[in-house]
Amino acid sequence: MRQLTVSIERFPIAGTFTIARGSRTEAVVVTATISENGAVGRGECVPYPRYGETVEGVAAAIEALRLQIEAGLTREGLQSAMPAGAARNAVDCALWDLDAKRSGIRAHVTAGIDRWPPATTAYTISLAAPEVMAEAAAKAADRPILKVKFGGEGGDLERIAAVRRAAPDATLIADANEGWTEHNLAEHFAACAEAGYVLVEQPLPAANDGFLATLARPVAICADESVHDRASLKRLVGLYDAVNIKLDKTGGLTEALELAEAAQAQGFSLMIGCMVGTSLAMAPAMVLAPRARFVDLDGPLLLAKDREPALTYDGSIVYPPQPALWG
Fold it and tell me: Catalytic site residue 149?
């Protein structure tokens, strides 16, 4: 017999995590735990206000599905039982973990991944004053890939240059989190190109990103807030060069695998990203890492304390999870 447990957990962030939409000092996550005949599967999600989610609402949505889950709901059935989003992600990943624990077959094998090597993750530089961001970049300059947050009130041109000066050898990704406008987009693109950034992520609000079709792009552009699941993909052709797949947007690993295949078939490069969560949230996303051009699974590196057991990070190298964690 199955049993579902839903819990809300809080993990302090080391310092403050700031993007164009605001700042946070803790990661608040919802964890679904499904036990069956001695096997236990877990999945973690991070509710995101940008998508109309609250911690309480996500927990309630999972609770509302309790009878179906405890009656034996499958991953396939879950896709129609819940919409894409954080709540479905927690349940979907818990079911993947449960299946792995019951069968003894690792999740990446079930997903069709023969080899599961370590990956190099980007490391995030939070939005702040240019000199503060430069200092943070200098401290992280030995990391090979830095993802730099922009979109503040003015100063982004200076921030773009300051981070490059502080980390001259790093691969840089600019992430505006919808914070730029049609009026300043061209100059920000030009500044990123001049400073050698390899990618610009979600420069415009998702509702206004059709404007991207009107501009030459000196730097590749990646969709984040504009892409959720396969249903959102078709509109992005011609606007973006890459898509950022996050399990909290796709509603779990099941849809994320399908989205990755569809996106690559339509010529998009892949980034595998995350919200700020623990190793339990990163572990299922690691299944997609072998297919990705960029991996951005640094959530636990931003926390003051991760859960145990945790993923192993060696600098920016992140290793696949041990079964005790997930999968």
Answer: yes
Ligand-binding annotation for 296, yes or no, is no
* Residue 156 annotated as lining a ligand binding site: no
Q: Is 152's pLDDT higher than 90?
A: no
Distance CA 268, CA 232 (A): 13
> 258 among the known binding-site residues?
no
Summarize pLDDT for 217-265 with one digit per residue, the tens: 899 999 999 999 999 999 999 999 999 999 999 999 999 999 999 999 9
Q: Where are the alpha helices (DSSP H) in the chain?
A: 55-64, 66-70, 75-81, 86-103, 107-110, 130-139, 156-166, 185-194, 247-250, 253-265, 279-285
Of 101, 147, 246, 249, the catalytic one is 246
Strands 123-125 and 145-149: parallel
Instruction: Give the bridge partners for 117, in sequence order.
Output: none
Given the residues 149, 234, 249, 305, the one annotated as active site: 149
Give yes or no: 234 in active site.
no
SS3 78: helix
> Hey, what are 212's tokens?
């991207």
Residue 20 has pLDDT above 70, yes or no: no
pLDDT tens digit sequence for 62-75: 999 999 999 999 99
Query: What is the spatial distance between Cα 48 and Cα 87, in angstroms, rounded to a whole number?
Result: 11
Give the chain's domains with CATH numbers.
2-105 (3.30.390.10), 119-318 (3.20.20.120)
